[in-house]
Amino acid sequence: MASSAPQSAQPVFRFAPSPNGRLHLGHALSALTNERFAVEMGGRLLLRIEDIDRERCTPALEQALRDDLAWLGIDFEPAVRRQSEHFGDYAAALAGLQTRDLVYSCFCSRQQVRAAVAEREARSGQPWPVDPDGAPLYSGTCRALDRTNAQTRIAAGEPHVLRLDMARALAAVGGELSYVVFDEAGEISTLAAQPARWGDVVLARKDIPTSYHLSVVIDDALQGVTHVVRGRDLEAATDIHVLLQHLLQLPTPRYHFHELLTDDAGRKLAKSRQSESLADLRVRGVTAAAIRERLGFA
Ligand code: GLU
Q1: Which residue, judged by its Cα, is nearest atom 4 of ligand 1?
Q2: Does residue 24 have its Cβ closer than 6 Å to ligand 1?
Q3: What separation in Å is there between the alpha carbon of 49 and the centre of ligand 1?
């Protein structure tokens, strides 16, 4: 059975950005919050590059984010884990879950999933449930496909994803799941994890042999991370991470979710929204000290 990460050893923190765009102030807040906790708790601070998306992540963007972090003056340990160098670790975990029949191949396109959901809604007259990010839960069409049929389609080169069979996964765990969060003062409390609200999540994508959820859980364990500090936007996803930790018999770190920065219109800062980058601020003459001060780390 999974366990909590050992708390007597030296705490291990990590900042885990994706080099798929330039870092903005929200990333600085996350990195600096990790740094502050690591200093306060006498912990180690690791940098992990989350670059499983080989199309959107580039070496130039990785270099740029490392330059931004160096400019901010954040002291990470020199050894960096780059997820793209560890696809074998993720494949091994998936193979284990496959052997236990906890994942299945799904051949549905996004359009097919949408159509299946619309059809169910029309039939039942009820809205179809959505996950915490607002996406409709998977309709389950491929869950019942027999394995031989699925193997034939895979052998014929049909694109597919691997989904977690949520009902089977919950049955394999066989009880309530929870995890420990810590606040600014280091006070801890326990939260219930509710992975069922995510449905049959994708654990390996069509174009990428893993997913954010799977890689993050495996890497946190392999790097001995005891404390995960990240934005509130990833709080709900932690349900899936705690479930995967139990299924894979990995320790569950403690978690802290910091508030998110918003722009003038009240929207969360995002690379996809072209939020002003740290590099833009630097060009405008803003200093690293001013950024630390603005974010409350002076
Ligand atoms: N790589 C994720 C991001 O860039 C963060 C992962 C995490 O902190 O768990 O948003």
Answers
A1: 17
A2: no
A3: 9
Span of 5-19, 132-146, 154-168, 249-263 with lowest mean pLDDT? 5-19
| Closest listed residue to residue 16, CA positions, set 72, 82, 95 | 82
State pLDDT tens for residues 81-118: 999 999 999 999 999 999 999 999 999 998 999 999 99
The closest residue, in CA terms, to atom 3 on ligand 1 is 17
Query: Which domains does the chain carry?
Result: 12-107+142-294 (3.40.50.620)
Q: Edge to edge, what strands does the sheet with 12-15 contain?
A: 80-82, 44-49, 12-15, 227-231, 254-258, 177-182, 188-193
Question: What dihedral do alpha carbons 265, 266, 269, 273 form, nearest 10°?
Answer: -40
pTM of the prediction?
0.95
pLDDT at 1 over 50: no
